[in-house]
Fold this sequence. Notes:
The chain is of the alpha/beta class. It folds into 2 domains: 5-222, Rossmann fold (3-Layer(aba) Sandwich); 228-289, Alpha-Beta Plaits (2-Layer Sandwich), CATH 3.30.70. The protein has 11 helices and 14 strands. The longest helix is centred in the middle third of the chain and has 16 residues, at 168-183. 34% of the residues are buried.
Amino acid sequence: MNKEFVIDIQGLTKSFNDRIAVDNISISIQKGEVVGFLGPNGSGKTTTMSMLCGLLRPDKGRGTCLGYDIFARNLEIKHKIGYMTQKFSFYEDLTIQENLMFVARAYNLFDLHKAVNQTLHNLGLWERKDQLAGYLSGGWKQRLALAASIMHKPELLLLDEPTAGVDPKARREFWDQIHQLAQNGLTVLVSTHYMDEAERCHRIAYILYGKMIDVGSIDEVISRSRLSTWQIKGKHLGGLALSLKNMPGVDQVTYFGNALHVTGIDQDKLNMSMKTIQKETEYKINQTTTSLEDVFIHYMELQHIG
């Protein structure tokens, strides 16, 4: 195993009731990386993350997490990770400070008051420390959950759909905090099916129905998909959208406000179709950048075809 990696895994496989949930997944993750596990619901993201950090025992495979063997040393791994679930799981009739004190006792931290007070200050919660958790907005509940997850100073942080139901400002502040933690050496794994969350990660691991489809930066994953995308602007796009779906080279037709995005894997055929539309109509047509969402849908459709 390469000691430079916080996580270094080969061939992880896991089944439940004879159904393969994760199929031969391999990945290496460096210290301080923010890696997003992207995929639709039921694709095996959470199962994969649980095996990576020793929370769930694989049926097959090998690897290390934080320098420990995931089979033989999973207890040591558990003590060095933080886990933030999607569902708010703290006592709503306790204050922020009381909730954090409860968590500090659960972790058996040496100086409870110092740990809690330091966390309150670091996460911007000090002025709200006496507020009941049940009266917090989604963004502040999220901040409390993050505070509880990192109070014991873990080396690896797991985030499960971390910004679901949170307003855009709170979401941006949350990700600023995550990247600040990563700059200080914390490694972060994020499970998500939201494109905007995935795009905030250094790299993504695209998992589809238990298989690792691709791993890399957003630009690398988009480039390797070999998709080509065109934008069509104009009025009355509904009829055109229906016609486009039957044209050569067109794999996806998606509405983006007052425009259509037309995407396909066969660039030559798609280009010919776009030239045909350009000659026969007055729509404004130009080639544009393929999005991560285009890639996401493309791989899902390939799986259904297969």
